[in-house]
Design a protein that fits this description.
Layout (H helix, E strand, L loop, with lengths): L2 H22 L3 H21 L3 H23 L11 H21 L12 H4 L1 H13 L5 H9 L1 H22 L5 H4 L3 H5 L2 H23 L8 H19 L1 H7 L2 H24 L15 H35 L8
Helix pairs in contact: 1-2, 2-3, 3-12, 3-15, 7-8, 7-15, 8-14, 8-15, 11-12, 12-13, 12-15, 14-15
Length: 334
């Protein structure tokens, strides 16, 4: 067994142990931490499979923002899971085992792992994406070509889903906690001088890296989804160290609300512009009629920027919503 195979086996073993622990542990804080470990391990597996773009998203969303939001949600509820009666657990277990058995049975029809003549390797679309995309789109990162150009309409739908989900969650969360309740945590924050110094050093580099991932996604791993979460993580770190009110003053909600919609409008506006120019929806070639490749670059740049704006705004607003309601509530519950 090669060294790389040993690493794969170790990572999958960590996933298995984390999953079993999540199912058995009743302390919700431990479950949130283990979920972050599960996501980070999944990101490592994606890197091993050369899916760096997916690894970026999994690490930023799964291990980063999702963990923070889970901790915020814990402040609104009890810290220990309520025991489920056996009469209800057994049917759920049977459904899970049946579904797993069906999936294992269906996996027998899949091609063997790593074979050269698998459908994904021999299908004409694969050659089109890997070979022709460089000439048609002019973008070295094939993932960006597929997501932002070849299936740009689908990606637009994903952005609309993010926008709709953010609006729905914020409506469910309602109003934030009163100011006097939020300020109860201020004495504790005042003692975090070491964290404040480290955060001041890290946050500018996090934001700079987010901009790099945003505008370098054409040439390397990255894009609007990954950059949006990374940029939002910088703001969340600022809020965790310096306080929610300080973060709201630096990045106010009144600025995030229009930005949440502006990203979607920017993406859809590019498609409307190509329609007005006489082409199909999101046909970037028409943005620079004399040079279709330049039009592709411009179109991808604009739609990826729209994705980044919407994702950043959605993540920060969701954090504000959970953190604003959570402070002063749920502490000490069990």
């Amino acid at each position: 067994m090669s060294g790389w195979m040993l690493i794969d086996v170790a990572l999958f073993a960590i996933l298995l142990c984390s999953g079993i622990a999540i199912a058995k542990i009743r302390q919700l804080f431990a479950v949130a931490m283990l979920s972050g470990i599960f996501s980070l391990t999944s990101a490592c597996i994606f890197v091993m499979q050369d899916a760096v773009d997916v690894a970026f998203t999994e690490a930023a969303v799964g291990a980063g923002m999702t963990t923070v939001l889970l901790l915020g949600a814990l402040a609104l509820t009890r810290t220990r899971e309520k025991l489920t009666p056996t009469a209800r657990s057994v049917p759920a277990l049977l459904v899970a085992l049946t579904t797993g058995a069906l999936l294992v049975h269906a996996s027998g029809d899949l091609p063997a792992f790593g074979i050269e003549d698998s459908p994904v390797q021999t299908h004409p679309v694969t050659e089109r994406y890997l070979v022709s995309s460089v000439e048609e789109i002019g973008v070295p990162n094939v993932v960006t070509s597929v997501l932002a150009s070849y299936r740009g309409y689908d990606t637009f739908g994903e952005v609309v889903v993010i926008f709709t989900a953010a609006v729905a969650v914020l409506m469910l969360l309602g109003q934030r906690a009163p100011r006097e309740v939020r300020e109860r945590a201020a004495p504790m924050r005042d003692r975090q001088r070491v964290l404040r110094v480290i955060a001041k050093l890290l946050i500018p580099f996090i934001l700079l890296f987010g901009l790099y991932v945003q505008f370098h996604g054409d040439y390397g791993p990255g894009g609007g989804f990954q950059a949006g979460v990374i940029f939002a993580a910088g703001v969340v770190l600022y809020a965790l160290v310096f306080g929610l009110d300080a973060a709201r003053a630096a990045v106010p909600m009144r600025a995030l609300r229009p930005l949440l919609a502006a990203g979607v409008l920017l993406y859809g506006g590019v498609g409307v512009a190509t329609l007005l120019l006489g082409g199909a929806f999101l046909d970037y070639d028409l943005l620079a009629a004399e040079d279709p490749v330049a039009g592709q670059h411009l179109g991808i740049l604009l739609v990826e920027l729209g994705v980044g704006i919407t994702v950043t705004s959605a993540m920060i607003m969701l954090f504000y919503g959970f953190a604003g309601r959570g402070i002063g509530r749920g502490v000490g519950r069990s």
